[in-house]
């Protein structure tokens, strides 16, 4: 197991209440694991705590990475162990060339340009077109996100925390991003994906539903998404969207059963 969260409780900055409480989940090496839930449920807080950001330290529980308890380690130490975070909003480093920006996080500087080119290809950006461009207002939001993701990939982390990578992207671009996630997986990197959208999450091998700060279920993503739909009362939406390779994930009787169980609580 690459990552384990055991009864993780994270308080607000003023410590007066908990944002998430007793969160437990595990992420298998080489997988894509999605944390899904409504806005405000604590998904991003979990990612920030895994990364070790200030003000997101747990008051209870532990974070285990590759068998090591890293709960008390800082951001730098976690990054050294192979954890990195890509933000909802891409970095705003104006005036730096794409080559220099992606090269910043590469430890081994040998064959540097080749490594940058490979990273750009992974995120479906033509290297000749982008490598000498500058990060400025001429780049679209989608291009900036790809460049940041390329910089993350070039670092070759063991675990990439992707916080709402679909934010602000249209459906055409999203389809391309799903392809990129699978490319990252093929490079032997693991993704923990934070999202509230089923079309993004369906790329995941497994998922965890977080609801009002608590983890309710960890399972195959389609099953997790079904439980999310049941909690939110989105039966027809669920029937329309839970497909994998054009095949329905569940028959209607099973969906009706899960919704009936939720309504009886």
Tell me what you see in this structure.
There is one protein chain. With 265 residues, the protein is α/β, with parallel strands linked by helices. Helix content is 38%, strand content 24%. It has helices at 43-51, 75-80, 98-103, 112-122, 127-130, 141-154, 171-186, 198-201, 221-232, 235-241, 252-263; strands spanning 3-11, 18-27, 32-36, 60-65, 68-69, 83-86, 159-163, 190-195, 206-211, 214-220, 243-244, 247-248. Strands 6-7-8-3-9-10 form a 6-stranded mixed β-sheet, sandwiched between helices. Strands 2-1-4-5 form a 4-stranded antiparallel β-sheet, covered by helices on one side. It starts with a strand and ends with a helix. The mean pLDDT is 90.
Q: Can you list the strand order of the major beta sheet?
A: 6-7-8-3-9-10
Please tally the helical runs, counting DSSP H or I stretches of 4 or more residues.
11
Q: Give me the count of strands.
A: 12
Low-confidence stretches: none
The helix fraction, in percent, is 25-40%
Concise synopsis of the structure shown:
This protein is an alpha/beta fold and 265 residues long. It has eleven helices and twelve strands.
Secondary structure topology:
Layout: E1 3-11, E2 18-27, E3 32-36, H1 43-51, E4 60-65, E5 68-69, H2 75-80, E6 83-86, H3 98-103, H4 112-122, H5 127-130, H6 141-154, E7 159-163, H7 171-186, E8 190-195, H8 198-201, E9 206-211, E10 214-220, H9 221-232, H10 235-241, E11 243-244, E12 247-248, H11 252-263
Parallel strand pairs: 3-8, 3-9, 6-7, 7-8
Antiparallel strand pairs: 1-2, 1-4, 4-5, 9-10, 11-12
Helix pairs in contact: 4-6, 9-11
């Amino acid at each position: 197991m690459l990552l384990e969260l055991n009864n993780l409780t994270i308080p607000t900055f003023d410590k007066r209440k908990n944002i998430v409480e007793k969160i437990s989940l595990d992420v298998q090496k080489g997988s894509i694991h999605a944390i899904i839930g409504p806005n405000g449920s604590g998904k991003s807080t979990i990612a920030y705590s895994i990364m070790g950001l200030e003000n997101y330290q747990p008051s209870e529980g532990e974070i285990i990475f590759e068998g090591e308890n890293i709960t008390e380690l800082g951001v730098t130490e976690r990054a050294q162990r192979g954890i990195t975070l890509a933000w909802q909003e891409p970095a705003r480093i104006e005036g730096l060339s794409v080559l220099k920006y992606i090269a910043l996080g590469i430890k081994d500087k040998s064959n540097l340009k080749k490594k940058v080119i490979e990273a750009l290809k992974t995120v479906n950006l033509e290297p000749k077109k982008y490598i000498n461009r500058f990060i400025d207002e001429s780049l679209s939001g989608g291009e900036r996100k790809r460049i940041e993701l390329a910089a993350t990939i070039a670092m070759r982390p063991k675990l990439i925390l992707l916080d709402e990578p679909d934010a602000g992207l249209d459906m055409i671009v999203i389809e391309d991003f799903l392809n990129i996630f699978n490319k990252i997986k093929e490079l032997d990197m693991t993704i923990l994906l934070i999202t509230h959208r089923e079309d993004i999450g369906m790329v995941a091998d497994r998922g965890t539903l977080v609801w009002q700060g608590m983890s309710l279920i960890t399972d195959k993503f389609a099953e997790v998404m079904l439980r999310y739909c049941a909690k939110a009362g989105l039966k027809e939406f669920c029937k329309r969207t839970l497909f994998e390779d054009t095949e329905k994930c569940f028959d209607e009787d099973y969906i009706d059963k899960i919704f009936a169980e939720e309504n009886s609580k």
